[in-house]
Design a protein that fits this description.
InterPro entries: Dilute_dom (IPR002710), Vascular_dev_regulator (IPR052072). By secondary structure, the protein is mostly helical. It is 55% helix and 1% strand. A two-stranded antiparallel sheet has the order 1-2.
């Protein structure tokens, strides 16, 4: 009997363990079932409200995601939404994300965000400066003409007959090229900047972000111009300095007219402004050397010396910069800890900061034009 009792107790322990395991599995199943039931209830409540109250959310089927991305990002044209709410495609995407989050569909949220980011990156690779989709991938039709616009555009009439050695006469072709965005005139450059600014404003970009974009553009203008000045003897003259100063003043005036002068964009022009002044000041006495050193704070010692070495007199009455004067400059500036880099980094990018700017637009009031072809979206 004792042997039989031990056997039965052993079997009882085994059965008790199995019961506990089954109970745990049943509890887990009940939790999952409750979660599914809750999601179904939320879904049913959402469907009931579709035709009654619009709460600023949009529902779409998972299989329509590619169509949604194609309509709002890949194939969108600025002109098709220019007369609507600024940033309408972004609002529509946000309303879709809100609904996916509302029904606790994490995978749908992740998929939509990932697809949107990848589509935007793809569009940016083939986007031309005017905001339309054209041109080969990696093409850059905008930056390089800036050099000619800043250094060779003769926008001051009095300089028409004053040319330095080897100066190329391109004024006639530049003056007639007034329509294209890659024109070599100063006014063409300003028109291009205005076009960029208009596109950003029309799309509702935050003013602080607009200022950061313009700052990056002005850095490119300064870097390309200064680097070319440091590499070309034919433009290192008094007349070029006068022209450069006038051109930079026109860019500063453009910043003021567009309420962008308080941004950091104007500061990026300081090196080329000082280079223009260096070309114009007297370069003879020790007092001139001290004045140059106190003036050219945004230029490195290497850049100052390089410009002085390349400086070319306009005529036989103007003297060249003497070696002793350049050595005087070097001795005065020898305590500077400038980096040993002559040319500016044209590919340098400033970090972009996106400020939090709450929208005053009520999502319930957003109207989606039928022309976009988004009839597969359901207002929730």
């Amino acid at each position: 009997m004792e042997k039989n009792e031990r056997k039965l107790k052993k079997q009882l322990r085994i059965y008790m363990k199995k019961v506990q395991e089954l109970a745990a599995q049943a509890a887990a199943h009940d939790v999952d079932q409750n979660k599914d039931d809750k999601n179904k209830m939320i879904r049913q409540e959402t469907l009931k409200r579709k035709d009654k109250d619009f709460e600023g959310m949009l529902e779409y089927l998972k299989e329509d995601e590619a169509r949604l991305i194609k309509t709002l990002i890949t194939d969108i044209r600025p002109g098709s939404v220019s007369a609507t709410v600024p940033c309408l495609p972004a609002y529509i995407l946000f309303m879709c994300i809100r609904h996916a989050d509302y029904i606790n569909d994490d995978q749908k949220v992740i998929s939509l965000l990932t697809s949107s980011i990848n589509a935007i990156k793809k569009v940016l690779k083939v986007c031309s400066p005017d905001g339309s989709l054209s041109g080969p991938e990696g093409s850059d039709p905008y930056l390089y003409p800036l050099v000619s616009a800043m250094l060779e555009s003769e926008s001051i009439p009095s300089l028409a007959g004053v040319k330095s050695m080897g100066y190329r006469n391109r004024s006639s072709s530049m003056d007639t090229d007034a329509d294209g965005p890659t024109t070599y005139t100063l006014q063409g450059l300003i028109r291009q900047l205005s076009q960029f600014n208009s596109i950003m404003r029309d799309h509702g970009l935050d003013p602080e972000v607009v200022g950061q974009v313009v700052r990056q553009l002005f850095h490119c203008i300064n870097a390309f111009t200064l680097n070319n000045l440091l590499l070309r003897k034919d433009v290192c003259s008094w007349s070029t300095g006068m022209q450069l100063r006038y051109n930079t003043s026109q860019l500063e005036e453009w910043l003021r007219a567009n309420n962008l002068f308080q941004s950091k964009a104007s500061a990026t022009l300081e090196p080329i402004i000082q280079a223009a002044q260096l070309l114009q000041v007297k370069k003879k006495t020790s007092q001139d050397a001290e004045a140059i050193c106190s003036l050219c704070t945004a230029l490195t010692v290497q850049q100052i010396v390089k410009i002085l070495n390349l400086y070319t007199p306009l005529n036989e009455f103007e003297e060249r910069v003497t070696v002793s004067f350049i050595r005087n400059i070097q001795s005065v500036l020898q305590e500077r800890n400038d980096p040993p880099q002559l040319l500016l980094d044209t590919k340098h990018t400033f970090p972009v900061l996106f400020p939090y700017a709450p929208s005053a637009l009520s999502l319930e009031a957003v109207h989606i034009p039928a022309s976009l072809g988004l009839d597969f979206l359901v207002r929730v």
